[in-house]
Design brief:
With 461 residues, the chain is α+β, with helices and mostly antiparallel strands. It is 36% helix and 20% strand. Among the domains are: 88 residues, Uridine Diphospho-n-acetylenolpyruvylglucosamine Reductase, domain 2, CATH 3.30.43.10; 119 residues, Uridine Diphospho-n-acetylenolpyruvylglucosamine Reductase, domain 3 (2-Layer Sandwich); 108 residues, Alpha-Beta Plaits (2-Layer Sandwich). Helix 1 packs antiparallel against helix 2 and helix 7 crosses helix 9.
């Protein structure tokens, strides 16, 4: 195998792209990593900003010819190190591909370039009376390409499902630079294997997604919501379980523990979450014709379950305030200690009490602060482990706690990652979850797509 020839590759990239779309040296520094702490990032050969699928393909052909690693990159809001630059690799940042190509009201689909922000798609759909439900906490910044590549979730998954449930068709640049379209614009289609599903959640390791067609829904009703605080986690979980078992379907069922509430109130002076509670539940309904009644019934269930405070909101302003505060979970906890390791464990809902009890035990035994919040209705929580990166004992304890939390989730029949992805952060734990046979099968799938392993090598698997 001939060694990579960086200078020649750089010269070829300069021929493939206008100068303004190619960054090298210190000018590339802003694009080295995502929002995770403790994940390594290399110094790339170049960061490129293609403006079309053809330009992406031209870049990939240069990389393939020289066997240079490629890191597809969206808005770098990822929390697992998946978008971090690789030493001497090429970062392909898709954020310049930010055109909403069509919103089709007849077929109820939208087609967007990969760099379109999630919130921009949601607004474009809403402008014509349609609805794109996936709403990761980062939705004002994250891109659709990143959402598809991580199979992002959000607050509304409990009712509507994750990004992958809405993806119909992808335009993808493969590892040899060829351009393919997987899936179809229709609701159904079973020709060949479902490669669209395989690419969803592939974290840039199987292809570079350049265009996405998603299915849309009719707009829901204006949401109504209720928040409630509890003196114990157990009481909050029991009340949430009664709501899930009822014949009404919440569109949001979120959880924050005491440390999260305190961190969010400290981080954002505008936030006025009720202090001094052990747990807070945020519940909404957007069901046409019955959102109001749903929420009134949820309020009764919460009161009967021993909530200390119950606050119903039928106005969008108050609901937005609560949801905005909830979206601060990750940055607020990160700020509280300087650095954080962000867990994304998911367990069957029946195992949530065991998960939360186990987190308390791990926090106590290893003397690490853990604040936990997230998508209770999905069984997907984000324990955030705080540490001071300048204190080696704290770094070590945080990493040990991180491993124990993942092991606990797997023991409870769950997974290391519900929505953030594996990236670099959780790679060491994949074997425990998949086992050697499945891991080998997955590596052979990767080899079929990317025989020379140039697409985000060392991430995910
Ligand atoms: C405050 C905050 C809140 C968050 N809340 C949520 C949440 O509620 N739910 C959730 O799921 N996540 C959440 N996240 C994590 C993150 O926003 C998501 O993982 C998001 O999908 C990443 O999108 P991005 O455009 O930033 O992608 P990046 O971080 O740039 O990349 C993420 C991964 O996707 C790959 N990738 C990116 N674009 C492409 C492409 N076009 N083709 C192929 N591969 C690509 C990258 O290589 C990388 O592996 C949150 C993050 C923050 C900071």
């Amino acid at each position: 195998m001939t060694a990579p020839q960086p200078t020649t590759a750089l010269a070829q990239l300069a021929l493939a792209l206008p100068a303004a779309q190619l960054l090298t040296g210190p000018r590339a520094d802003a694009y080295l990593r995502d929002q995770s702490d403790s994940t390594p990032a290399g110094t790339p050969l170049a960061v490129v900003f293609p403006a079309s699928t053809e330009q992406v393909a031209a870049v990939v052909r240069v990389a393939a010819a020289h066997r240079i690693p490629i890191v597809p990159q969206g808005a770098r809001t990822g929390l697992a190190g998946g978008a971090n630059a690789i030493e001497a690799g090429i970062v392909v940042n898709l954020t310049k591909m930010n055109t909403i190509v069509t919103v089709d009201t007849v077929d109820q689909t939208a087609t967007v370039q990969a760099g379109v922000r999630t919130y921009a798609l949601a607004r474009a759909a809403a402008a014509v009376g349609l609805f794109y439900p996936p709403d990761p906490g980062s939705w004002k910044g994250s891109t659709l390409g990143g959402n598809v590549a991580t199979n992002a979730g959000g607050m509304r998954c409990v009712k509507y499902g994750v990004t992958g449930n809405f993806v119909r068709r992808l335009t993808v640049v493969l590892a040899d630079g060829s351009i393919v379209h997987t899936g179809q614009r229709t609701i159904k289609g079973v020709s060949g294997y479902d490669l669209t599903a395989l690419l969803v959640g592939s974290e840039g390791t199987l292809g570079i997604i350049t265009e996405i067609t998603v299915g849309l829904l009719p707009a829901p009703a204006d949401a109504s919501g209720v928040s409630a605080t509890f003196a114990t986690t157990e009481a909050a979980l029991a009340a949430a379980a009664v709501i899930v078992a009822s014949n009404r379907r919440p569109s949001v069922l979120e959880y924050l523990d005491g440390p999260c509430i305190a961190a969010i109130n400290d981080f954002d002076p505008e936030s006025r979450l009720p202090a001094d509670a052990a747990a807070l539940l945020l519940i909404q309904s957007d069901q046409a014709g019955q959102a109001h009644a749903d929420v009134e019934e949820y309020a009764q269930i919460l009161k009967a379950g021993g909530a200390s405070t119950v606050s119903v909101a039928h106005d969008p302003e108050h609901l937005d305030e609560l949801m905005s505060a909830r979206r601060l979970l990750q940055p607020a906890l990160q700020a509280a200690r300087g650095s954080s390791l962000n867990e994304d464990v998911t367990v069957p809902r029946s195992q949530l009490p065991a998960l939360l009890a186990g987190l308390t035990e791990i926090s106590r035994e290893l003397a690490v602060p853990i604040g936990t919040g997230g998508h209770l209705g999905d069984g997907n929580l984000h324990p955030v482990i705080g540490f001071d990166a300048a204190v080696p004992a704290q770094v070590d304890a945080a990493h040990r706690a991180f491993a124990r939390v993942i092991a606990l989730a797997i023991t409870l029949g769950g997974s290391a990652s519900g929505e953030h992805g594996i990236g670099l952060l959780k790679k060491d734990h994949l074997d425990d979850e998949l086992g050697p046979v499945l891991l080998d099968l997955q590596r052979r799938v990767k080899k079929a797509f990317d025989p020379d392993s140039i697409l985000n090598p060392g991430k995910k698997l």
